[in-house]
Specification:
The structure holds two protein chains of two kinds. Chain A is mainly α. Chain A is 52% helix and 0% strand. Chain A contains four helices and no strands. Chain B is 51% helix and 15% strand. The chains are: A mainly alpha, B alpha+beta.
C-alpha cells in the first residue's frame, strides 16, 4: 500500500475524519480545513515514524510538509531516502 | 542505558553544590539579589553548560546538565532564580543555537552565556495559552523586514530581558501554519514591556507582558524558516519540558532530608514522630517519588544524548516530575505540621513554587494529551 493511501486511512480511522472519504484527495488542505492541528501533527509523526521506521526531525515541522496528503507522502519518501 | 557518573562529573556536582551553598543562599528576593545571582550562575558556567564551546558554552551532555541542575536545586532553595535560568536555557538559547543563523548565534549566544544579556520567550497570549498556535500577534512583511503587532503575556524574565524570541503569525494563515519566530531587541521602537506580574510562587522570577505596536524588525530577525515557527517552538518546548524540572529532583531530595531529620527529632507521645506509620509511610512515598523521578529524568537525558526519539518520554517526565514535586512538597509540609505552614520554614513557599510546575511549559493535562497522541490514541 502506498504512503498516500496509508496516510489517508490513518486520517479517516484514527483522526476520525468527519467528512466523506472521497473528499480527502491527495491535495485536500489538511491544515486550513483543520484536519491537522498542532497536536494532531504529533500523532501523525508518531504514526509515520512507527509505520515506516523513520525519524522525522523537528526541522521538518513546517506547513509545506503537512499541508496535504501529497506533501506528507513526499516527506516520507524523502526521509526514507 | 548507562547512568554511571565519571569522577569528573561527580567532582563537578560537588562544586555546584558548594557554589550554590556559598553564593546563592540568604537572598532577600530583591531584583538586585536576582541580578547578582544571575551573574554568579553565568560566571560559574550554568547558563552556558549545554551551549557549544564556539558560542561561549561548555558543550556538556544532557546527562551532565541534568545532574548539574539537580545539584543546583538541591543546594539552592531560590526556585524562582532557577526557573528563570531554565527559561533562558531551554526556551531562549536552545532555539537560537539550533535554528538561528550563524550571525544570530554569534550575536546573542556568547552574551546570553556570560549573563550580560537575558532573553524572554514570548509565545503565550491572553487568548492563546495551551492552544499556543491560536496566537494572533501578527508579522506583516513590509519593506526590508516585518511589522509586529499584538501582545504577549506570562513572559518569564520580561522585566529584565534585553531580547525576546517572539512568535507571530504571517498574514492570511491559520493554525500552526504561518507562525514564525523572530528575535527582537528590547530597545526596538514599538516594543513595550509593561507591568511585572505578581505570582503565587516563584516570586523571585520576574515575569511580565510585552506589547508590539507597529514594531519594525529587520529581515534578519526571523529564527528558522518563515512559517516554521512550529518547528522552533516544538523543539524548544520538548527540550524545556525535558530539562526544566531537573532541579526539582534536588529540591525533593533536600525536602526529604529535612523531613527525615524532623521526623527523627520531633517527639510526640513519647517517641519520634517517624516511628508512627502515618509519618514513616509518607516519607517512604517521598523517597519512592524521588528515585522514580530521578531515573525517568536520567533515562530521558540519555535518550536525547544518544539521538533516540524522546517526544513521549519528555511528556512523561514533565507530568511525573511536576506532580511528584507537588505531592512531596505537600508531604513535607504535612510532616512538619504547624511549623510547615510558617513562612520562615520555607516549606509553604516550596508548595507554591511546586504548583507552578504543573502549569508552565505545558500543563499536566496537555502533557497527558501529548503522550496519548504518541501512543496513537
Amino acid at each position: 500500500m502506498d504512503v498516500a493511501h496509508r496516510v489517508r486511512d490513518f486520517i479517516i480511522e484514527r483522526r476520525r475524519f468527519a467528512g466523506l472519504p472521497s473528499v480527502l484527495s491527495d491535495d485536500y488542505a489538511l491544515i486550513e480545513n483543520e484536519v491537522l492541528d498542532s497536536m494532531a501533527i504529533f500523532e501523525m509523526i508518531a504514526f509515520l515514524e512507527d509505520e515506516y521506521d523513520i525519524r522525522i526531525e523537528d526541522e521538518e515541522l513546517i506547513p509545506e510538509n503537512f499541508g496535504t496528503i501529497a506533501d506528507i507522502s513526499r516527506l516520507v519518501h524523502r526521509v526514507m531516502g | 542505558l548507562d547512568f554511571s557518573w565519571s569522577e569528573e562529573q561527580l567532582q563537578f556536582r560537588s562544586e555546584v553544590i558548594r557554589f550554590a551553598q556559598r553564593e546563592l543562599t540568604g537572598g532577600d528576593g530583591s531584583p538586585e539579589w536576582f541580578s547578582k545571582s544571575w551573574k554568579k550562575c553565568a560566571d560559574f558556567g550554568i547558563l552556558g553548560l549545554p551551549v557549544a564551546e564556539d558560542y561561549g558554552g561548555a558543550g556538556a551532555s544532557n546527562l551532565t546538565v541534568a545532574m548539574t541542575l539537580e545539584a543546583l536545586g538541591y543546594a539552592c532553595s531560590d526556585n524562582g532564580l532557577i526557573f528563570s535560568l531554565n527559561a533562558q536555557m531551554w526556551a531562549g538559547q536552545y532555539p537560537i543555537e539550533r535554528f538561528g543563523t550563524a550571525q544570530q548565534r554569534a550575536t546573542y549566544l556568547p552574551r546570553l552565556c556570560s549573563g550580560d544579556l537575558i532573553i524572554g520567550h514570548a509565545m503565550s497570549e491572553p487568548g492563546a495559552g495551551s492552544d499556543a498556535f491560536g496566537l494572533t500577534t501578527s508579522a506583516r512583511p513590509e519593506g526590508d523586514g516585518f511589522v509586529l503587532n499584538g501582545s504577549k503575556t506570562f513572559v518569564t524574565n520580561a522585566p529584565v530581558a534585553g531580547v525576546f524570541l517572539v512568535f507571530a503569525r504571517l498574514p492570511d494563515t491559520q493554525g500552526f501554519a504561518g507562525v514564525s519566530a523572530f528575535l527582537v531587541d528590547r530597545d526596538t521602537p514599538g516594543l513595550h514591556v509593561t507591568r511585572a506580574l505578581q505570582k503565587m510562587g516563584l516570586k523571585t522570577s520576574p515575569m511580565g507582558e510585552v506589547f508590539f505596536d507597529d514594531c519594525h524588525v529587520p529581515s534578519q530577525a526571523p529564527v528558522g524558516r518563515l512559517g516554521g515557527g512550529m518547528a522552533v517552538f516544538s523543539a524548544a518546548m520538548e527540550r524545556e519540558r525535558s530539562m526544566i524540572l531537573a532541579s526539582t529532583i534536588g529540591s525533593m531530595e533536600r525536602n526529604l532530608e529535612r523531613s527525615l531529620a524532623h521526623a527523627s527529632e520531633r517527639r510526640q507521645f513519647g517517641q519520634p514522630i517517624g516511628k508512627f506509620q502515618a509519618v514513616s509511610h509518607r516519607l517512604v512515598e517521598m523517597k519512592l517519588r524521588l528515585e522514580t523521578a530521578r531515573l525517568l529524568l536520567y533515562r530521558l537525558a540519555w535518550l536525547i544524548d544518544n539521538g533516540e526519539p524522546s517526544g513521549l518520554d519528555s511528556a512523561l517526565v514533565k507530568v511525573y516530575l511536576s506532580e511528584s514535586y507537588v505531592a512531596s512538597s505537600l508531604d513535607a509540609l504535612q510532616i512538619h505540621g504547624g511549623y510547615g505552614y510558617i513562612e520562615e520554614y520555607g516549606l509553604a513557599g516550596e508548595v507554591s513554587d511546586a504548583l507552578a510546575s504543573r502549569l508552565y511549559s505545558g500543563t499536566s493535562d496537555i502533557q497527558r494529551n501529548l503522550a496519548a497522541r504518541y501512543l496513537g490514541l
